[in-house]
Specification:
With 412 residues, the chain is an alpha/beta fold. The protein has helices at 3-19, 63-76, 84-87, 91-104, 115-128, 150-158, 174-184, 208-218, 246-250, 276-285, 287-290, 297-310, 313-335, 356-368, 398-410; strands at 32-33, 41-43, 46-50, 108-112, 140-145, 166-169, 190-196, 198-199, 204-205, 226-231, 256-260, 270-274, 348-352, 371-372, 374-376, 387-391. The protein has two domains: 21-50 and 316-410, Aspartate Aminotransferase, domain 1, CATH 3.90.1150; 63-310, Type I PLP-dependent aspartate aminotransferase-like (Major domain) (Aspartate Aminotransferase, domain 2, 3-Layer(aba) Sandwich), CATH 3.40.640.10. β8 and β9 form a beta hairpin. It is globular and about 60 Å long. Keywords: Ligase, Transferase.
Length: 412
């Protein structure tokens, strides 16, 4: 026996994935973008309308972000050089953390290389402590929404709790969450409830106000209370009147909020905001923060500029444009006979197709019309709920949207 046998097993698994039509490695190579209000992606020699980007405000191509990135790179270099506890923190990183804390009205913030890395670290540390000497025990029940993002699922997995200490509550069902908390209040010292703020497949907003009310009710029923952790990667920067995300929409606060710069802020990297106690503890215990480089200084400066823009007239205008574009797209699609998996006001608009083959074929036909969208099928969504996830940007023009709707209509 040799490693060739293992490679054979890997090839069989790759073939299985390909036959299931769930392959993800055949990415389209984008060689650049056009210089216009709504930049088109250049693939080969053709220009494509982009309707599958998380760049909800269209900021990643904004001159102010590019200028800020260039200036910071000139000052600090192309990369951070090392992890922060070894070589120190660059001022641009700390300035960004202070801006985040102010933006979210929290005590402090810390940035990670990605929001996936943030979720892994935050959940592991708040569930199980950092090591065997930690005073943070694992006498905890972890309760997760059934449709939470993979990074949350993996964050819970790496904590390595016994199966009985990991459970889910039905998707967006606060009543079921209350049942779980009630049933476990005499079993565990504490509970940790974790959820997405905005669910990425459907653009749904979590019922955070109801969840917060239930958690506050049961906080005194657990010796060490109940903690609410929210991953609002698809909410911060775009959702709410001023872009403060699910907390602003629902009018309540999470105990720990995780976000990203890689979507509405148009940059890259992840972050967490919370009380000073939470952030101080995470700085001492979060492995993907302590032992992994932070985002490049130029990227941090671009993210910082995005936060500044959001509270200026330009940011307010972009938020208004986003809402108008989403409403316009929904209205026009309904006119030509299409329906949505859910009724959402988020830039994520799930066009319901209902069949995996038809969904895949339609995405291919739209691509031939120089339009990029993404198909989402089982097991990411339930069987029969196959969708094309269209993502509307604040910088899309009415003409862009009309062309997309026309293409859908032609393939009806």
């Amino acid at each position: 026996m040799s490693r060739k046998n293992f490679f054979s097993v890997l090839n069989q698994e790759i073939n299985r994935i390909d036959k299931a039509k769930t392959s993800k490695r055949f990415e389209k190579i984008i060689t650049g973008f056009t210089n216009e209000r709504s930049p088109k992606a250049i693939i080969g020699k053709k220009k494509f309308q982009v309707f599958n980007s998380n760049d909800y405000l269209g900021l990643r191509h904004h001159p102010a972000l590019k200028k800020a990135e260039h200036q910071a790179t000139e000052i600090f270099g192309a990369g951070p050089g090392a992890v922060r506890f070894i070589s120190g923190s660059l001022k641009v990183h700390r300035d960004l953390e202070k801006a985040l804390a102010k933006f979210h009205k929290k005590n402090d913030a810390m940035i990670f290389s990605s929001s996936f890395a943030a979720n892994l670290a935050v959940l592991f540390c708040l569930i199980a402590g950092q090591n065997k000497d930690s005073l943070v025990d694992s006498d905890v029940i972890v309760i997760s929404d059934a449709l939470n993002h993979r990074s949350i699922i993996d964050g819970i997995r790496v904590a390595n709790l016994p199966k009985e200490q990991r459970t889910i509550f039905r998707h967006m069902d606060p009543t079921h969450l209350e049942e779980v908390l009630e049933n476990n209040k005499k079993i565990y010292k504490r509970a940790l409830v974790v959820t997405d703020g905005v669910f990425s497949m459907l653009g749904e907003y979590q019922k955070l106000r109801e969840i917060r009310t239930i958690i506050d009710k049961y906080d005194k029923e657990y010796v060490n209370g109940v903690l609410l952790v929210v991953d609002d990667a698809h909410g911060v920067g775009i959702a709410g009147k001023t872009g403060r995300g699910i907390e602003e929409i629902e009018g309540v606060k999470a105990d720990v909020l995780i976000g990203t710069f890689g979507k509405a802020f148009g940059a890259d990297g992840g972050y967490v905001v919370g009380s000073q106690t939470i952030i101080d503890y995470l700085r001492e215990s979060a492995a993907t923060y302590i032992y992994s480089n932070s985002i490049p200084p130029g990227t941090a400066a671009a993210a910082l500029k995005s936060i500044e823009i959001l509270d200026k007239p330009l940011g307010k205008k972009l938020l208004e444009n986003s809402k108008e574009n989403v409403a316009y797209f929904k209205k026009q699609m309904k006119k030509v006979g299409y329906f949505f998996a859910v009724d959402s006001s988020h830039p994520i608009q799930p066009v319901l197709i209902g069949d995996p083959f038809k969904t895949s074929v339609l995405v291919g036909k739209l691509f031939k019309k120089n339009i990029i969208v993404t198909n989402i099928s089982f097991p990411v969504v339930p069987k029969g709920r196959d969708e094309i996830r269209v993502q509307i940007s604040a910088v899309h023009t009415k003409k862009d949207i009309d062309q997309l709707v026309k293409a859908f209509k032609q393939e009806k």
